[in-house]
Structures are given as structure tokens and as C-alpha cells.
Amino acid sequence: MMERKPLKRKIKVALKRKSKIFKRSISKKKDLISKKFNNSIKGKKIDIKKSVKNFFDWVKGAEIIELPNCNTSEDPVRPELDNQFRTSFGRKIYGVKYQDEIHAVMCFAFTNNIPKNVEELDMMSKDAYLQSINRDFKVGQIAIAYTVWSKKRGGGRLIVKEVFKKIKKTNHLNRLVTLSPLTDMARKFHLSNGAIEVSVNETSQNFEYKM
Question: Which end of the chain offers a freer environment for a tag, N or C, measured as fewer CB atoms within 10 Å?
Fold first, then answer.
């Protein structure tokens, strides 16, 4: 009996030691995980702040300019239309320029009616151009945005906003309407930027930005 008691005590002591070691190990792991998590959160906060600052910096520093041409292969909507089409009969290409690079593009034709497809756009803009010969080449009454794309976050929204301002300053254009592809993406983009739906056609849809 005397031999068993010291053995029990030894076992108890050993178990207590192991329990303490185990608790310390768990505590250290918790601290390590907590530190990693906190560092990760801090890093993400810094990244978010940095990206927000960069976004506002580029928006403030960007300018809208008229372009003589564009890279039509980048156009996700109408890549088949060449630069000759985009710049003839009074049609224009506008771009958002920042640090010597073009980050968004929007192409326009000017008409007196709303087209439902590219063929009508071509015909109506030619007609408006010919009519403008007798009125100082002030082409059409409606600006038709038939394609827009952006290579930088916020570029699409920015170019819509800036072109809208530009058109409002003219004394012969009184409407800004789109000839958009029949996709949910186009619909969401224009509605989220304040346009209203004018019509849904067989192969396109029209949205209008109220002047």
C-alpha cells in the first residue's frame, strides 16, 4: 500500500504538468492565430484605403478628349466598326485620358431620330450630316452613344458623366440616347447611371439620359 501511494502521486504530478504544458501550447496557438488575423485585417484596411485613394486620384486627374481613332479590337460591343465609320459624317470618338493613357472610350453618331440598329444609325447620321451643311455643320439634334468600354474601374461611369456635360453645353443637341446591345449588362450599366429605358428592339435597346 505504501508503494502504491507514491506512484499515484507521481502520476498526478505528471498529469498536472502535461495539462499545464497543453494549456500553454493552446494559449500560444491562440495568440499566434489572433496576431495573424489582426495583421491580415490591418493589411486589408490599408489596401482598401490605398485603392480608394488611387481611385479618387485618377478620377480627379482624368480628362475627356476627342480622339482621332481608337483600338477597335478592344471594343466589346461593336468591334466590326472601323475608325473610318467612327469618324466620318460628323461621328466622334471620345476618350478618358489619365497619365498619357486612354482608360475609357465612347463613340457617338448624331441624328435627328432614334435608330434601332447600326444600319439605321449609319443612314440617319449621314442624313443629319448632309442637312448640317446649311447650318454650320451642327450635326443632328440627338447624340447617339452606340458603344462604350472601360479599361479602368470607374471609367465607364466617368465618361458618361463628362460627355453628358459636354453635350449640355451645345446649342443644337437636346437629347442623349444610346444604341445598346440587348444584354442585361448594358441595361444595368445605363439604368444605374441614371438613364431611362426608351425602347427594346429586336437586336438592341435604347436608353436616354435626360438633359
Answer: N
Along the 211 residues of the chain, how does pLDDT read in single tens digits?
A: 445 556 666 666 666 676 666 667 677 666 667 666 666 555 554 455 544 444 445 556 778 899 999 999 999 999 999 999 999 999 999 999 988 889 999 999 999 999 999 999 999 999 999 999 887 778 899 999 999 999 888 888 888 888 888 888 888 899 999 999 999 999 999 999 999 999 999 999 999 998 7
**How far is residue 146's CA from residue 134's CA, in Å, rounded to a whole number?**
26
C-alpha closest to that of 92 among 68, 120, 63: 68
From the centroid of its chain, how far is CA 102? 14
pTM of the model: 0.71
Domain 63-209 has CATH 3.40.630.150: yes
Contact 121, 179 (CB under 8 A): yes
- Comparing CA positions, the residue from 108, 36, 105, 47 lying closest to residue 76 is 105
**Residue type for 126, please?**
K
Q: Using alpha carbons only, what angle is made at residue 164 by residues 175 and 131, rounded to the nearest 5 degrees?
A: 40
